Amino acid sequence: MTLRFGVVGTGAIGREHIDRITNKLSGGKIVAVTDVNQESAKQTVEIYQLDAVVYPDDKALIADENVDVVLVTSWGPAHEATVVAAVEAGKYVFCEKPLATTAEGCIRIVEAEMKQGKKLVQVGFMRRYDSGYVQLKQVIDNNEIGAPLMIRAAHRNPIVGENYTTDMAVTDTLIHEIDALHWLVNDDYKSVQVVFPRKTKYSHDKLQDPQLFTIETNSGIVMSVEVFVNCKYGYDIQCEVIGEEGIVKLPEFSSVVMRKDEKLSTGILNDWKFRFMDAYNVEIQDFIDSITKKGEPEGPTAWDGYIAAVTSDACVKAQQTGEKEAITLQERPAFYNEKELQTV
Ligand code: NAP
Predict the structure, then answer these.
(1) Is residue 338 very low, low, confident or very high in pLDDT (cuts 50, 70, 90)?
(2) How many helices (H) does the chain have, and how many strands (E)?
């Protein structure tokens, strides 16, 4: 069986997913595309030599009975309407983050999905498919380090542009840790507080950089997460989980070790795409395989999208108030209880 994808949004990540589904993965093909910029949609069909219909909008694409899956890669504020319409039409959805820009929007998607009586939606949190995170998760789930007590994490980019503002440290950057960390420890968040250390001279007026988030979970795990987006030296993702009986840490990205000029050195990446390239491939392949073999996606759910939205709002509020802010989730519906299934 080949899953037939309709793509809404043919920008950067839309094209990357089209390329991987068409040229790298198995079991999926692109049969339809749309973009508010119709030229971009047409160009995409030409560049990737797709046998695909270009639709004027998402509604027409969703209505195509040849489309099994709607791949949502438009800009964030447009996601909710497309996802709700696709779910109401009974289509599977792979939606890049954010699922919706508000918690209420995520709940509307959750309700639409529950009405259909089966899981249809997966959110594009690809960290869960990175081999390092998968290994961390296995160590924790196998109880090899005992109960997790603390997490130290860092998300560092070499540089960001002038349009990147303080809140984007949460909505564009920390959002990946927000999803990955509660998944790692199977716990929900309780509160967050933000501290702004001395600001780097490489930042600008509208960006406080770096930032330090202290996030506490319901069981009392304390997570200290640094976001530093003008760190200069490279793209670097760190995560160390401190447990009662041991400590486990993400592996360093594999690179040759060089001995030269009285120095021992290894490379550091400078772009998130290279760091998570394999994870994106595994993520979309798993989405295709789960639907094909089991009838529903098994990755991050619409409920995970909701958790991310609520937590993200609390983190932005904590940036503004400097206080410890509560992270208050609605009760998890039984429909979304199979949290442990989300490993690859
Ligand atoms: P992008 O290059 O700006 O692409 C978005 C595309 O969608 C643009 O062509 C845009 O057209 C189009 N678009 C906007 N509204 C639309 C609508 N209502 N219907 C159809 N097309 C619409 O952005 P991107 O970098 O690909 O990001 C897309 C999404 O993926 C964002 O939500 C982003 O957060 C997410 N993302 C996730 C990851 C990850 O690590 N998981 C990485 C990158 C991006 P115009 O340019 O004309 O507005």
Answers:
(1) low
(2) 10, 15
**Alpha-carbon gap, residue 261 to 63, rounded angstroms:** 63
Contact 60 CB / ligand 1 (< 6 Å): no
Q: What ranges in 20-130 are assigned the alpha helix state H?
A: 38-47, 58-63, 79-88, 103-116
Residue 178: which CATH number? 3.30.360.10
Contacts of 176 (CB under 8 A, 6+ apart): 97, 125, 127, 155
Cα(14) to ligand 1 centroid in Å equals 7
pTM beyond 0.85: yes
Q: Confirm whether 317 is domain-assigned.
A: no
**13 C-beta closer than 6 A to ligand 1:** yes
Cα gap 83→71, rounded to integer Å:
9
Domain endpoint, select from 268, 293, 322: 268
Identify the helix (H) or strand (E) that includes residue 156. strand 148-156
Domain residue limits at 27: 3-127+278-306+332-336
> What tens digit of pLDDT does each residue of 97-126 get?
999 999 999 999 999 999 999 999 999 999
What pLDDT, in 10s, does the model give residues 44-94? 999 999 999 999 999 999 999 999 999 999 999 999 999 999 999 999 999
171 lines ligand 1 (CB under 6 A): no
| CA–CA–CA angle 111, 116, 121 (5° rounding) | 70
Å from CA of 23 to ligand 1 middle: 21
pLDDT value at residue 255: 87
CA of residue 216 to ligand 1 center, whole Å: 32
